What we know:
Layout: H1 2-21, H2 29-33, H3 41-52, H4 55-68, H5 74-96, H6 102-109, H7 112-146, H8 148-152, H9 156-209, H10 214-224, H11 248-258, H12 260-267, H13 272-287, H14 290-293, H15 295-303, H16 314-322, H17 325-363, H18 369-390, H19 398-402, H20 404-424, H21 430-465, H22 471-481, H23 485-506, H24 529-546
Amino acid sequence: MQFLTFIGFTILVALISYLKTRKTNENTSDGYFLGGRSLTAGVIAGSLLLTNLSTEQIVGLNGSAYESGLSVMVWETLAAIAMVVTAMFLLPRYLKGGLTTIPEFLAKRFDVATKTWTSVLFLTGYVVVLLPVILYSGSLAISGMFNIPELLGITHTQSIWLCVWGIGIVGSIYAVFGGLKAVAISDSINAIGLLIGGILIPVFGLLLIGDGSIIDGLSVLTTENPEKFKSMGGPTDPVPFYTIFTGMMLVQLFYWGTNQQIIQRALGAKDLKEGQKGLLLASFIKILGPIIVVLPGLIAFHVFDGSLEASDKAYPMLVNKVLPKAWIGFFAAVLFGAILSSFNSVLNSSVTLFGMDIYKQHLNKDADEKTVVKYGKIFGVTLAIAAMFIAPMIANAGSLFDYLQEVNGIYSIPILTIIVVGFLTKKVPAIAAKIGLLLGCLLYILSQFFLQPYFINNALEKAAASGITGDSDLALIKAEAYPHFLDIMAILFLLNAGIMLIIGLIKPRTENYIQEYTKQVDITPWKYVKQAGLVICVIVIGVYIYFS
């Protein structure tokens, strides 16, 4: 019965997506890559939220909350402010230029080589890190939820391969053959299901703790575990509070404002008003995100008395304990939708970047739009197959998942730096952007994969020689031995921006850069954008004050 519910809901989403997109002309770049520039606020908001949410976040962030408490909610709450900044500052400039991809702006602002370098960086990050990790973590969740090894009489490894290819093939059909609109429509439907299913987990958890009363459950949870309800992380927590003012905001701005897989939804808006309303609606819902990706981890800590050997088991074990059996098929389908969303969103963005920024620019400059879309799809299929072969191998590379956020920093901060400098200045030349990209990547790799291990190992060796063996003492020593990776990001952002500005003073552009208005969409802003943005920022600050 659970499996039939899962299949039924998944087919329903696919059918609705097909009916809603069959009239979209996907032989043009706008039609395929941007849904015909027809996306409305609700579709944009739903797609943004579900693209962001996937198994590695739902399971991983709840695991972090189980271990470290409420302070990890910063990944959700600060995202709301980043989306406000994107809606007010970045999106009007993107739509004014009629952009299909973020690197397209860099070609106009700097030169084609800068655009190509950036597209290659994006694609490398997507192929090497994001796609395989999404497939592998999603397969673990689906395999475990249905206990596929026992159900089909196969090994755990065979089950992972089966799930990887199942998710990969279905996700590829959405992304490669349906274009952005199919992805966005399916995302919006699944977003509703994810919100319902995600909220049910803490509701049933609190009912369990409070003997049938949610209010009593919340009271017991906060009274008996007060140390878990502090919004400000300490030095040994995953996100120390002070990093909010260093690299955390930069990471959020990159992700929500410049990352192709995310911002592509807003680029497909029918006009600026719809794009801004979609971003702000998503940002408001994002404030409520901790209810789904943090609170269950806190509930699991109470329910299991902090006795789990691995924090990542907190969420799936809580689901199995509190969710009625009749709901498991529906929740698995929704979770499957979240996995698909992240996979097909990255894949669709990869197809867009390849088709517009590499194939059309370098391989076939005379190609018509139908040909660009055709070869973009071929690239997408190739990429998906490669990711499906790579994903099961992640089981043998344990550090890859742990260092996911740090690995993304290799390309995220350099790209964010050149985009910000590009928008805020008129004289900085193309050579400065190239140096910023190259230097940013190399310095980050040097810092995180050479210097950091060196300093931490030295500190731990000195601690061992001094007889220090306590886990909490060693954690503090590690934290103090080298700056947090978010601090490194902030330092490199300022360093790279400074170098670019100096180059701009020494060797400025011959002519000031002036962004042209392509008039592809109406860029009249939503009249309440400033008021709504202010309200969202005040709510975020209020949440931190309340839980401080």
